[in-house]
């Protein structure tokens, strides 16, 4: 039975507002319609605009209401009453089933289904970074439920998203017409929600942006939102870096007294212009005063967010704090050097350039024992009023930041370390027919200009992920056995070309990277002509082909990527036939099937993608069974089955997907138990649970997700 506060008979309300029973103070967001928006039989009404709500008229009939969770099978309410209002305790997304009887007659059975219905997701006003972090999860909700989604948010943010998400309506809160919505969800930071009414888990424990995924019931994997700019030209021709030194409270600032001046001087000495894009040039919090660094160029002021985004998009990188401009830089695809001590790194988006000093007091924001006080500009819950106040960032040194800056690929060359999302296309290299597998895609596709990016979809693989994703190992001639000195030197040269291509990819120069990879292929092709049976030469050829395929995949040249990956797969198949006991070649073959599956799936060829996923899973199973104590292979095995389940879904076989997901879930649970809650296993587990839930919802509806 629910708590009494969740059931509000009409005769007990006596003029009280719905807020009277809410123990958690909600943000200032529009209240739902006073009367539920959906009409049922005999005058009853219901909706999902503040949890599940049911209004039962006093018409002389006796009512019975049962409310269940479709995902868990739990009965949440089962109550008899004469009239009144029933409201679920949980106000975040739950796949509800509503059943109503009257005098023993079954009147209404309704399973939550937002498909083609009006849904509102509302965000607080006055925050920038939070909403940017949450927007992609709202888009995921729209994709999952295929609803007619409206997002209510602060007016300055609307120009960033309206053109990027044409299938979502963006309005201010004053424009919300609450009576039109089937369901409403409030995404915010609920500090005092001890009973977890408005969020299934405390946002401080899952990350500021991922709390939206939990509230909306979607996959927690982070992805930047899409941002569309009407003016996207480069503001200045010179290489430049953007910085932002201001924040709303002192704990968010970099409190090292010489930090910003030192870093600005360092960046200028390296050859960058330094542009400060804060709203204000100066701020004061008590005795603390923060000003724009003297040597930075002043672009502060009340400027529209799209203008800030334009500066950020073309910057080599951004150096900032745990504040809205860091989230905006992340959204437009610019590398972010994020300096913060009061938040734990899990609180923000992932960046390899996150700076925190774990030797100092830190992460109080994510400590559920401390409630952040917005009105206290000097909030420091552990050390306020002591000599150690704000040591979390005061003890972050300029040297620490300089070391991090030097680690950015391309630093000091005035080159962007990565391209913005859906980058413009560049010419590709040429390969000859000798590299193509029989029956594969034509290799002339590699020389075609890639098609324009699909404005409605994200690039399948971000540039920044290229170097972290495996595409095969590179062997150097100096370590090879059975080759001449000359051949070894050539192999070293080919490996160096691949390494240089990897570096230039990291610097965002795809044209140069493709030239490096082509040079490697030309060198190795010369070696294979002289010694066609040399497995090492063949393997390096496949590696270079994979690098080209990866770049073309990012550019959305799917035909070219498929040609490169197919050529690489053909080489791996020949090597496995010639060397059936070589474990490295078996791993290569499994990997190449996975790479090709990505491409053909993106082309909509789901049956082919499924076959490649099945081949990948079979090979990984064989390898993992032969090495049951290898943690890398065991994770690969769980991942391969999860990917195989994903490949089942677009073929319409949801039952098959669920069966394979369950196999992956069993492997993942075993890995969690053996690893002591390893974060990679945890991520696999959480993603799997979401996919299983989604597949079960699809299975109940009898539809196939797009």
TrEMBL record:
Positions of TPR repeats: 638-671
Region Disordered, annotated ranges: 1-42, 408-445
Domain of life: Bacteria
SUPFAM superfamilies hit by this protein: TPR-like (SSF48452), UDP-Glycosyltransferase/glycogen phosphorylase (SSF53756)
Coiled-coil ranges per UniProt: none
Start and end residues of each Autotransproter heptosyltransferase TibC/BAHTCr-like N-terminal domain: 40-104
Keywords linked to the UniProt accession: Glycosyltransferase, TPR repeat, Transferase
PANTHER family: LIPOPOLYSACCHARIDE 1,2-N-ACETYLGLUCOSAMINETRANSFERASE-RELATED, TETRAACYLDISACCHARIDE 4'-KINASE-RELATED
Protein name as it appears in the record: Autotransporter strand-loop-strand O-heptosyltransferase
Organism: Bradyrhizobium ontarionense
């Amino acid at each position: 039975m629910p708590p009494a506060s969740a059931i509000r008979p009409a005769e007990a309300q006596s003029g009280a507002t719905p807020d009277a029973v809410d123990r958690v103070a909600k943000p200032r967001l529009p209240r739902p319609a006073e009367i539920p928006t959906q009409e049922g039989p005999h005058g009853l009404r219901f909706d999902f605009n503040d949890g599940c709500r049911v209004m039962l008229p006093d018409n002389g009939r006796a009512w019975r209401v049962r409310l269940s969770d479709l995902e868990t099978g739990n009965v949440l309410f089962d109550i008899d009453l004469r009239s009144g209002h029933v409201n679920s305790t949980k106000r975040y997304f739950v796949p509800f089933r509503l059943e109503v009887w009257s005098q023993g007659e079954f009147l209404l059975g309704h399973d939550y289904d937002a498909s083609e219905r009006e849904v509102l997701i509302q965000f607080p006003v006055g925050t920038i970074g939070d909403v940017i972090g949450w927007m992609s999860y709202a888009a995921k909700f729209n994709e999952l439920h295929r609803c007619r989604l409206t997002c209510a948010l602060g007016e300055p943010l609307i120009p960033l998203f309206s053109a990027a998400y044409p299938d979502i309506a963006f309005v201010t809160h004053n424009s919300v017409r609450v009576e039109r919505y089937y369901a409403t969800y409030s995404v915010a930071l609920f500090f005092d929600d001890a009973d977890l009414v408005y969020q299934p888990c405390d946002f401080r424990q899952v990350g500021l942006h991922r709390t939206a995924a939990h509230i909306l019931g979607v996959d927690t994997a982070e992805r930047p939102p899409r941002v569309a700019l009407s003016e996207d030209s480069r503001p200045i021709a010179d290489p430049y870096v953007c910085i932002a030194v201001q924040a709303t409270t002192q704990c968010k600032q970099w409190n090292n007294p010489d930090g910003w001046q030192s870093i600005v001087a360092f960046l200028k000495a390296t050859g960058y212009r330094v542009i400060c894009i804060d709203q204000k040039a100066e701020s004061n919090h008590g005795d603390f005063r923060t000003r724009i660094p003297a040597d930075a160029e002043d672009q502060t002021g009340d400027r529209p967010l799209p203008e800030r985004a334009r500066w950020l998009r073309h910057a080599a990188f951004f150096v900032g704090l745990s504040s809205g401009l860091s989230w905006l830089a992340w959204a437009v695809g610019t590398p972010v050097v994020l300096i913060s001590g009061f938040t734990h790194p899990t609180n923000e988006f992932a960046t390899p350039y996150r700076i925190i000093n774990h030797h100092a007091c830190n992460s109080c924001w994510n400590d559920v024992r401390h409630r952040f006080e917005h009105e206290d500009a000097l909030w420091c819950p552990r050390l306020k009023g002591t000599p150690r106040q704000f040591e979390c960032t005061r003890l972050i040194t300029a040297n620490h930041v300089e070391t991090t800056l030097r680690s950015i690929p391309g630093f000091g060359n005035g080159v962007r370390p990565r391209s913005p999302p859906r980058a413009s296309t560049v010419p590709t290299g040429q390969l000859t027919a000798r590299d193509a597998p029989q029956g594969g895609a034509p290799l002339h596709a590699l020389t075609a200009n890639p098609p324009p990016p699909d404005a409605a979809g994200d690039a399948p693989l971000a540039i920044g992920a290229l170097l972290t994703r495996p595409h095969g190992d590179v062997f150097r001639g100096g370590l090879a056995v059975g080759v001449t000195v000359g051949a070894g030197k050539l192999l070293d040269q080919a490996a160096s070309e691949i390494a240089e291509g990897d570096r230039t990819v990291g610097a965002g120069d795809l044209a140069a990277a493709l030239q490096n990879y082509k040079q490697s292929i030309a060198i190795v092709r010369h070696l294979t002509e002289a010694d066609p049976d040399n497995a090492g030469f063949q393997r390096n050829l496949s590696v270079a082909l994979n690098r080209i395929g990866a770049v073309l995949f990012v550019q959305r040249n799917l035909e070219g990527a498929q040609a490169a990956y197919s050529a690489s797969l053909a080489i791996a198949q020949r090597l496995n036939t010639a060397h059936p006991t070589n474990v490295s070649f078996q791993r290569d073959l499994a990997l190449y099937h996975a790479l090709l599956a990505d491409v053909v799936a993106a082309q909509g060829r789901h049956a082919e993608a499924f076959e490649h996923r099945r081949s990948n899973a079979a090979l990984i199973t064989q390898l993992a069974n032969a090495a049951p104590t290898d943690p890398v292979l065991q994770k690969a095995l769980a991942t391969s089955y999860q990917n195989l389940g994903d490949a089942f879904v677009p073929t319409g076989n949801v039952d098959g997907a669920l069966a394979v997901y369950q196999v992956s879930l069993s492997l993942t649970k075993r890995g969690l138990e053996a690893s002591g809650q390893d974060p990679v296993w945890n991520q696999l587990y959480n993603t799997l649970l979401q996919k299983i839930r989604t597949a079960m919802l699809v299975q109940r509806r009898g539809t196939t997700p797009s």
